[in-house]
């Protein structure tokens, strides 16, 4: 079974994001970039499926500038077999991303597609669902457990009221939640082997996909600075401050 994994290049989660002086976007100059943490979980799940003998090939794909090859090589070092970079340096909507991924899926014909449930830069949580709608595949979002049984896949989903188990017929799409697994680290030998693995580069024009957007970013601002907290010595003092200073009671 071929498994298709989509990954995204984002600002490293340890980096404090800076807004550009003209408020046109986020300043990425000399900023450390990494694989989206939810995408790391997706890659790990695909590798575990291969180790169990369920998956026979893992194809990772990313959309971004040429520098996104770094994240694809990282996925190859973890255990993916080959990679595809859809090279595009501008901003994309979730729908445009889903359309580009569908073009690769139509070519590759995987049985299972795995994505992170969201990217930590935009936090949209849309691409997986849109991709399922475009492909007509069944979907299991917010997956905390995945089990493949022949031509079916059982997905335990994390929902507001607890968990839900859905059964999907392959091909299917799942999006990963935090508790699905703990990603591994790449070993030095595998990092060296990854340099020799196939990494194909295509463009949206070659795929014949329109990425024109009707959305326009007007302004980007940093969150308001939160005031420092204080310590109180007693419940009575806490109640007094909530009543007179915070005006919440």
Low-confidence stretches: none
CATH fold description: Rossmann fold
What form results from the Cα inertia axes? globular
Summarize the amount of helix as a percent range. Answer: 25-40%
Q: How many β-strand runs?
A: 11
Task: Let me know the largest β-sheet.
Answer: 9 strands, mixed
Structural class: alpha/beta
Tell me the name of the CATH class: Alpha Beta
State which percent range the strand residues make up.
25-35%
Report, as a whole number of angstroms, the end-to-end distance. 59 Å
The largest sheet has its strands arranged as 9-8-7-10-6-1-4-5-11
Count of helix runs: 7
Radius of gyration: 21 Å
User: What is the count of structural domains?
Assistant: 1
Named at the architecture level, the CATH assignment is 3-Layer(aba) Sandwich
CATH superfamily: HUPs
What number is the mean pLDDT? 92
Order of helices and strands: EEEHEHEHEHEEEEHEHH
Describe this entry's structure for a reader.
It is a single chain. A nine-stranded mixed beta sheet has the order 9-8-7-10-6-1-4-5-11, sandwiched between helices. It contains seven helices and eleven strands. The mean pLDDT is 92. The chain has helices at residues 37-51, 69-78, 94-108, 127-135, 188-194, 204-207, 235-244, and strands at 2-7, 9-11, 33-35, 57-64, 82-87, 112-116, 138-149, 152-159, 162-169, 172-176, 199-202. It is globular. With 249 residues, the protein is α/β, with parallel strands linked by helices. Helices cover 28% and strands 27% of the residues. It has one domain (2-244): HUPs (Rossmann fold), CATH 3.40.50.620. The longest helix is centred in the first third of the chain and has 15 residues, at 37-51.
């Amino acid at each position: 079974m071929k498994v298709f994994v989509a990954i995204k290049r984002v600002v490293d989660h340890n980096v404090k994001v800076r807004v550009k002086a003209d408020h046109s976007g986020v300043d990425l100059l000399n900023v450390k970039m990494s694989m989206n943490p939810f995408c790391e979980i997706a890659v790990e799940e695909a590798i575990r499926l291969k180790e169990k003998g369920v998956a026979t090939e893992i194809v990772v794909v990313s959309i971004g500038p040429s520098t996104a090859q770094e994240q694809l090589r990282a996925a190859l070092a973890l255990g993916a077999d080959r990679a595809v970079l859809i090279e595009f340096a501008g901003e994309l909507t979730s729908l445009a991303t889903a359309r580009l991924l569908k073009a690769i899926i139509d070519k590759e014909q995987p049985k299972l597609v795995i994505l992170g449930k969201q990217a930590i830069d935009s936090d949209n949580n849309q691409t997986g669902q849109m991709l399922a709608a475009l492909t007509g595949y069944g979907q299991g979002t917010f997956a905390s457990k995945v089990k493949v049984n022949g031509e079916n896949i059982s997905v335990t989903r994390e929902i507001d009221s607890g968990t839900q188990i859905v059964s999907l017929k392959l091909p299917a799409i799942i999006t990963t939640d935090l508790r699905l697994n703990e990603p591994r680290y790449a070993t030095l030998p595998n990092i060296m082997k990854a340099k020799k693995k196939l990494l194909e580069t295509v463009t949206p024009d070659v795929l014949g996909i329109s990425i024109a957007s009707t959305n326009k970013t007007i302004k980007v601002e940093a969150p308001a600075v939160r005031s420092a907290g204080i310590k109180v010595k007693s419940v009575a003092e806490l109640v007094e401050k909530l009543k007179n200073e915070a005006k919440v009671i």
